[in-house]
């Protein structure tokens, strides 16, 4: 699909919630030749999420008429997948494309630039980022890491993972070794699970060998590519820990400051386009992939109400405990929480009321 036609039809301002961004290239007032490298946290086999970084690089080149070149490298090619943020911070590379909650262990506040359990949907996240003060709060946070971060993709609501054995009650989480990232791991610990952080490329082997008992990744399209259903057929929903997952391009602040203003604008436009396109692509690909997974033997089940309630209670406890210990987290959490609660009241009146009725209906004979 031609990206310019896509943005013309969808409208970057309406879809991504950023009326100040433009859908065509900023005027090229200065055209220095610049070459950067972008390190991804994802393997090339995951075409949608890794492809988001590639799309970003391609659009930067197009919008700069070939003068600003960014080469994309898969996780592990030039920087280990879970070390890309440090590489940007230290100036080893100019930028990366990643899921910021991978760096939760360094500071829990990274989760707000990615996903928080029982937090924002993709639409709510965009509203918070572009209009609700999220960008400013995160910019202040990232300043201490010498990083400028731009939202550049979203998965939408994810799936609840693959399990070697059925998960029917909260008790089934006790002792469960599960590949799960960031905040979710801390919440699941309260339910008795043992969280593990493992890069995408190593998940299948860990499940197959029994090193872990369960794993979550993203959703049907990516999960099918990893083949997780072959070794852990019990597929649960929803991922209450990832009601959406925002991916970001992180840029070294010193390199950002060297750029002409119009090149900074090109990066902002390319990131916003990626933010729109990735979500649209996931919403396009996941339904077909889910049907294929079920035909291939995946056993689809919803988490029980008992599990959902216990998870919500544990999430509230972890959020409050973290805010009490981490000033960076608290600074973002309090306005984020207020925005989330108000936004969900609105969605409950509109989106949820409609979805509850219409999503189970089929049009036509």
Distance between the ends: 31 Å
What is the strand arrangement across the widest sheet? 7-6-8-5-9-11
Q: Structural class of the secondary structure composition? A: alpha/beta
Give the CA-based shape: globular
Q: How many β-strand runs?
A: 11
What percent of the residues sit in helical stretches (DSSP H or I)? 40-55%
Average pLDDT taken over every residue: 92
- How many helical elements? 14
Strand content: 5-15%
Low-confidence regions: 1-23
Q: Using the CA coordinates, give the radius of gyration.
A: 20 Å
Largest sheet: 6 strands, mixed
Summarize the helix and strand pattern as letters. HHEHEHEHHEEEHEHEHEEHHEHHH
List the helices and strands and how they pair.
Blueprint: H1 3-10, H2 12-16, E1 34-40, H3 47-63, E2 68-73, H4 84-89, E3 95-98, H5 122-130, H6 134-143, E4 147-154, E5 161-163, E6 177-179, H7 182-190, E7 194-196, H8 200-209, E8 214-215, H9 220-226, E9 234-237, E10 246-252, H10 253-258, H11 261-295, E11 299-302, H12 305-325, H13 327-349, H14 351-358
Parallel strand pairs: 1-2, 1-3, 6-7, 6-8, 9-11
Antiparallel strand pairs: 3-10, 4-10, 5-8, 5-9
Helix pairs in contact: 3-11, 6-13, 7-12, 9-11, 12-13, 13-14
